[in-house]
Amino acid sequence: MESVLLWQLTGIVSAIGGVYLLHKAWHKRFGANLEIIGGVLLILFSIIAWVQTSGADKGTALGIIVLIIVGGLAVLISALQTPKRKAKEGRSPSEHVLSASSAGAMVWLQRIYHGLLLFLLSGLAAVSVSSALFMMFRWLGMEHSVNLTIAAFAFSILWASLAVYVGSQRATMRKSIIILGLAIIPAAALAFKS
C-alpha cells in the first residue's frame, strides 16, 4: 500500500516537473534542448510510475490523465498571471469607465462560460464519446480489458484535444455547439440503447 502511494506521488511530482520544464522551454524559445529533453523524460517517468501502481493498461491511462490535469492547471495559472491589455486609444477615461462598468458583468459571464466549456464540458464530452466507444466495442465482442484500455486512452486524448480546440477557437457559438453535441448525442444514444 505504501509503495503504491509512493509511486503515485512520484508520478504526480514527475508530471509537474515535466510540464514545468516544457513550459520553461516554451518561454525560452531557442536553445532549450535540455529543458525539452528533461521535460519529456520526466513525463515518461511519470507514466512509468503510474504503470507501477495499476499495471500497463490502467496505469498508462492514469498517467496520461494526470498529465492532462497538470497541463490544464499550468495553462490556467499562466492565463491568470497574464497582464491585461492596454485600453484602446481615442476614448476618454470616463468613457472607458462607463463601458467597463456596463460590460463588466458580461465579460465575467463570458469568462466563466469559457472556463466551463474548456474544462468541465469538454471533459464531459470526452466521457460521453469514450463511453459510447466502450459500449460499441463491447457490443462488437472486444475483450474487456482491451476495451477498457482503449476507452481510457480515448478519454484522455479526446479531453486534451477538445480543450485545445476550445482554447484556440474564437467562435463561441461554433465551439459550444460542437462540445455540447459531443456531450449530448453519444449520451442520448447510450440512454436509448439501454
Automatic annotation (TrEMBL):
Which UniProt key words apply to this protein? Answer: Membrane, Transmembrane, Transmembrane helix
Listed transmembrane segments: 6-22, 34-53, 59-80, 116-140, 146-165, 177-193
Q: What is this protein called?
A: Uncharacterized protein
